[in-house]
Amino acid sequence: MLTGTGLIIGFIVALIVLFVLIIKLKWDAFIALLVVAIGIGLISNIGVRDLPGVIADGFGGTLAGVGILIGLGIIFGQFLAASGAIEKIASSMIRAFGVKRSPLALSATATTVAIPVFFDAAFIILNKLVQSLSIKTKISLATFVAILAIGLIVSHSLIIPTPGPLIVADNTGSEIGVFFLYGLLVAIPATLVGGVLYGKFIGKRIPNGDRLSDVTEEMEETEQVSTGKEMPTWLAYAMLALPIVLILSNTLMNVVFIENPEHIIPTFFAFIGDKNTALLISVITALFVFRPYLKEDSKTVMTQAFESSGMILLITGAGGAFGKVVQETGIGDLLIDMMQGVNMPVLLLAFLFAQLLRAALGSATVALITTSSILGPMAVELGASPVLLGLAICAGGIGLSLPNDSGFWVVSKFGRLSMMETLRVWSLGGFIAGLTALGFIYFLTMFQNVLPGL
Fold first, then answer.
1. Are 297 and 247 in contact (CB under 8 A)?
2. Could you read off the pLDDT of 246-257 as tens digits, one per residue?
């Protein structure tokens, strides 16, 4: 049984073994993740009898959070694609912004959508749009995946009302409105550098090849098979926005009825604004609204979606199982003990603290909550602005998503990227975005005595 530094080394070795199994030996990611999860569990303090239960809990817990979402999201995306709605939206965006500025348009969309909508839901909803944009603009899919994913995770980690930054603001004693404004300000350069600029850079090195050949064929078939009716552009946008608006309505009603949360109105919107319910409503609406525009019957579209969702669900669940085993080993506590004895500037310490926990535990939200619960109450004692300390913690939760993060596999499978490509596009892009956010936070310290709230 490994403990202390040996356990951390064991975790690093486990990641290397995972890479070898998938990349060199060509194992399926689902099997490889489960094997490595068992391996690291056996060398840790998790009991042999308890290990299968921990793996099952991690698998089931992950799918409890995103399983229904992934299934409904794929169905909804399939209807958007089969009806021609995605092509309508992509064409209108290109006409409005031009080919060269389409990455900026997607970046603005991702940042805005992620404020009310959770990362995984937003990525799945917008996934088909990204594929269509890549085909129409001839820009690498990796570029658009980076822009979408980084834009979403930056907002998810920095901008209230997502749970992570909301709890960080509370733990640091920051005023919510002030934290929101500065979080939004910091998110802009982080998204532009880590998403748009790095996305363009990495996209030139990861060409599409034939990874979108099936999507291209579907688009050509949709154009050739005419139903006699062409979908209005406004309807395409309205349907894409439907689940987002439903989810946003829940957030809005929580603010409006903050003093009376049990009122029937926020209760109603809490139900329809739940991400799973919102997507279910959207799928049911799509069944009726898109019927005149489908080149195939609804049953065929549903069957195609079911065929796509199985492996994605398995791999996402296995990633959650791996992450759960790592959490149960106590690696997070070991990293906390190591970092508390390091003498370095407080903002950098907060960033590294959250970054290491993000990499080790696989969850940005857990990393933010854990780090802020330790350092947050010490903000004044450490001589730091509570708002800037909190933002440094949030910046640390952006990057270094590894295969123990179920979100890693959502990006990989929906983004049609291999594991190594996902590391280059998603993990490294997020790390660059986090560093950019930290750099901008240090820039704000130069005006700490001038800017309000700091």
1. no
2. 887 887 887 788
